[in-house]
Design goal:
- The chain is built from ten helices and four strands.
- The protein has a single domain, classed as Up-down Bundle (Outer membrane efflux proteins (OEP)), CATH 1.20.1600.
- The protein is of the alpha+beta class.
Amino acid sequence: MSSRNTTLALLVMAMLAACALEPAPKPTDYRAEALGGVQPPGQWTAAGAAADPVAGSWVATFGDSQLDALVTEAIANNLDLKVAAARVQVAAEYVKLADSTLWPQVNLLARGGGKMGGDSSGLNGAGLYANWELDLWGRVRSARAAAEATYGSAVADAEFARQSVAALVAKAYFVAIEATLQLRLAQESVDTSQRLVAFAEQRQRIGKGDGYDTALARGNVETYRDTAEKLTLSRGQALRALEVLVGRYPAADIEVATQLVQPPASVPAGLPSELLERRPDVVAADRRVAAAFYGVQEAKAARLPSISLTASVSDISSDLFVLKNRDNPIWSAGASLLQPLFNAGALQTQVRIRTAEQKQSIAEYGQVGARAFAEVEDALSAEFAASRREAALTRAVDENQVALEFGQQRFKVGSSDLRAVSQQQLVVFGTQSALLRVQCERLVQRVNLYLALGGGFETVPASAPVARAKE
């Protein structure tokens, strides 16, 4: 290569190094446009929400080793997560593919075969050819940056999918425990009713009662047995749902705890502004905005001239004729210029398409962000309401239990009939059942809150960090 060509190449490389990519917009640049009238408030409107840090291991905050194990098992077996992991791998390979276009492309061409080989020309030889497109306008680098942003979006989506699976397992686990406790409560009510049947029969034998009380007591027993049968079905369905989530169905060998755990005392909601930086699906939406931005830059650069450096070395011989005045090997170097002149507006249309896609991605970011705020507020309000209801129902259970004991004593001494006792027993059963439902609901809403806040967990391997594309 001549000194003039060498100087030209170095000059072009210096120009290339000077053409840095324009950085992708940050969420703060387009957040107001994306969210419109939905702006991050200074604090959550739900009363009682604290600005404490969100738990990094929210599954572990429940202190249930069985739950930890089930979440880990579900993460390993869930088919949707395998799809998400495959998408991350595909996106990572696209980054490598885009990165390869920044480097010179070198190819080897060789042929042989003597007088009868190939096209019968008798030519034999080999050539090494190199081509390198100088990315003066950032088209190739924009394509790579878009691929990196797409990879970051896939990683964040996979993380949110893992958290969603963990949340589904946790909620199904608590519902299965509740169903077990509801069934136990119904069975205890059956036993209590059977004791009342025996007492009513005894009163009838000694002449202090009649067939009305006995028939009423027997009818109550069958009513509670029917309730127990329905709850047995519900429990089986809850366990099956959990088995499906963790990948055990139809083994039917899953076990849950015998009592509901107490929810963590504090409600770490963090600051609203932090939500848009922490929640994985919001991060994924931000990365899609960056990918769309670099797609616009790539389309714009495609309208400009492209310059490529070429170099080759070849050695050719022939068995049929003598190559005249030819020195082997032959070295060559040069450059090529390609300037789009007429394409019926295709390149400009590509720019408009990519611009529209960027606007779409910004709107989708706002959609995800607005939904995130609403989900946090809903989960906070629901948990606080469930907490207040639990306190009220606990007092109701205690008072109704005392009333039932008085009613049973009155029935035993003959100052009231069995109907009043039966009605009070039904009230006690109803309030106890409602209390179990609310206690489970508190746990479910705490899970919803962690998911809405984008809290992570340490019972599964952490995902790859979501980094911004190199800008």
